[in-house]
Specification:
With about 180 residues, the chain is an alpha+beta fold. It has one domain: Gcn5-related N-acetyltransferase (GNAT) (Aminopeptidase), CATH 3.40.630.30. It is about 25% helix and about 35% strand. The protein is built from five helices and eight strands; from the N terminus they run ββαααβββαβαββ. The chain has an eight-stranded mixed sheet with strand order 1-2-3-4-5-6-8-7, with helices on one face. A hairpin with a 5-residue loop joins β3 and β4. α4 crosses α5. About 25% of the residues are buried. This is GNAT family N-acetyltransferase. Pfam families: Acetyltransf_3. It comes from Sphingobacterium bovistauri. InterPro entries: Acyl_CoA_acyltransferase, GNAT_dom.
Length: about 180
């Protein structure tokens, strides 16, 4: 897996170097994990186990690092990849709340989409699932070119409340 770079960001293949207390704090922050499967109560040991499984599983996962401050602000991944059908699932975590709203998620996502649709992987389609109420994320994905493909009604339960999941996809314009 390659290191990717944008004008403001370096996307660095995930490693145990990113297993930090700061990362754990993101996973335990209700505002950060509000719409994520991660539901808090993470420890450094659990994070290390998770990152080790990602590394050993050859998951495409990058740490999002700002070029100016060299600060780890989030992660982006493509997993699983179905090579037979040219499909992959996208996910992103922007952990540093002070960096929200600065366009970093879009910049990192576009770089990864380009990588996946380029000759590196030549994927046909990238999919994702997003909580319908997460309007900021839905808008980001639409701005990246994802379109809605379906709705899973009352599909997940967070803090005792059911949420709909919107399934979205973006297609590689140069592949059938």
């Amino acid at each position: 897996m390659e290191r990717l770079s944008t004008s403001r960001l370096d996307l660095v293949p995930i490693s145990l170097d990113f297993c930090t207390q700061q990362y754990v704090s993101w996973l335990n922050d209700p505002e950060v994990y509000r719409y994520l499967e991660t539901r808090g109560n993470y420890t450094l040991v659990e994070l290390k186990e998770y990152l080790s499984s990602v590394i050993q599983g050859n998951v495409l996962m990058w740490a999002i690092v700002t070029k100016d401050s060299k600060r780890h602000i989030g992660n982006i991944k493509i997993d699983p990849i179905n090579k037979l059908h040219g499909l992959a699932e996208y996910g992103i975590l922007m952990g540093e709340k002070e960096e929200w709203g600065k366009g970093y998620a879009k910049e990192a996502s576009q770089s990864v989409i380009d990588y996946c649709f380029g000759e590196n992987l030549n994927l046909r389609k990238i999919t994702l699932g997003v909580v319908k109420d997460n309007e900021v994320a839905v808008k980001l994905y639409e701005n990246l070119g994802f379109r809605k493909e379906g709705l899973y009604e009352k599909h997940v339960v967070y803090d005792g409340k059911s949420y709909d999941i919107v399934r979205m996809a973006i297609f590689n314009p140069s592949v059938n």
